[in-house]
Amino acid sequence: MTNWHYTWGSILAVVVFSTAGDVLTSLAMKQSGDVGHLFHNNGLWATVKVVVGNVTLWIGVAFMAMAFFALLFALSWSDVSLVAPASASLTFIANAITAKIFLREQVDRQRWLAAILVAAGVALVAR
Amino acid sequence: MNFRKQATLAGVVLFGASGDVALSRGMKSVGALSLSQWSQVIHAIFTPWVVVGIILLLGFFVSYLSALSFADLTYVLPATAVGYILMAVLARFFLHENISPWRWAGIALIALGVGFVTAGPAKTATARGVQGHPPPPVGSA
């Protein structure tokens, strides 16, 4: 195992875990509905209860926690200027694909273009 | 997109960028972690800058969840990529880092991508038959 393996292995782990975390939390929040409306109609306590009472949210959070530890690990092996943009850039693409499949979001040409432009831009900022 | 929603997206950007910078600073003082020494990871979590980073990222998380409750994942992520531009600008003016032409090109691409996604609708389909709003009043069963 070289430094390169540790760096890119942990970056890959960040991408997989954070994509799973993002898609699951997004699903949970879509189920909850706009928290602004919830808050307006039912108050703070009821809003918090609806949000934290969703099991999907906690599974998503568990994946995010794993992504966080993978990120700490990656940061310890390489510079933030490589790790943060590389993992974020790849996560944009992975998220666009999984959001289309699992969340049934309409990822039209405009959104694909946005995801790819942002991913490319983030990768360039890393240089 | 009303003011509340714009402020929520701004919160995602500001908390996210500052949280990442704080985490990075903290982990630099910890040094390289290895798979065989898990105690180092626990030690790393209680480093002051890592603590600051975690608190800022909690703020990020609350605004992020709020944003996801009214907008698509494929809208929120590119729209809040403004944070990378913010980080580069902060590095330029507060840390006096030099921004290479490549970085400026990257910033331009991100700005373009953000423009593309924010020109479209924030929410397209509702997931798995879940209707977004107006939500049913809680406890009205």
Defining key terms:
heterodimer; A: 127 residues; mainly alpha; 6 helices; 87% helix; B: 141 residues; 69% helix; globular
Secondary-structure element pattern of chain B, one letter each: HHHHHH
- Give the CA-CA distance, first to last residue of chain B: 31 Å
Number of strands of chain A: 0
Structural class of chain A: mainly alpha
Low-pLDDT residue intervals, each spanning 5 or more residues of chain A = none
Structural class of chain B: mainly alpha
Helix content, binned percent of chain A: over 70%
| Tally of individual domains of chain A | 1
Determine the mean pLDDT of chain A.
88
Order of helices and strands of chain A: HHHHHH
Count, helices of chain B: 6
Number of domains of chain B: 1
Distance between the termini of chain A: 25 Å
Taken from the alpha-carbon principal axes, the silhouette of chain A is: globular
Strand content of chain A: under 5%
Put simply, the count of helices of chain A is 6
Rounded radius of gyration of chain B (Å): 19 Å
Q: Unreliable runs of chain B, pLDDT <50, ≥5 residues?
A: 129-136
Count of distinct strands of chain B: 0
Q: List the chains of the largest interface with their residue counts.
A: A-B, 60 and 59 residues
Folded structure, characterized:
- The complex is a heterodimer of chains A (127) and B (141).
- Chain A is mostly helical and 127 residues long.
- Chain A has one domain (3-125).
- Helix content of chain A is 87%, strand content 0%.
- Chain A is built from six helices and no strands.
- Chain A starts with a helix and ends with a helix.
- With 141 residues, chain B is mainly α.
- Chain B has one domain.
- Chain B is globular, with a radius of gyration of 19 Å.
- The interface between A and B is large, with 60 and 59 residues.
How is this fold's topology laid out?
The complex is a heterodimer of chains A (127) and B (141).
Chain A: H1 3-32, H2 35-42, H3 44-52, H4 55-77, H5 80-102, H6 109-125
Helix pairs in contact in A: 1-4, 1-5, 2-3, 5-6
Chain B: H1 3-30, H2 38-45, H3 48-70, H4 73-79, H5 82-93, H6 101-119
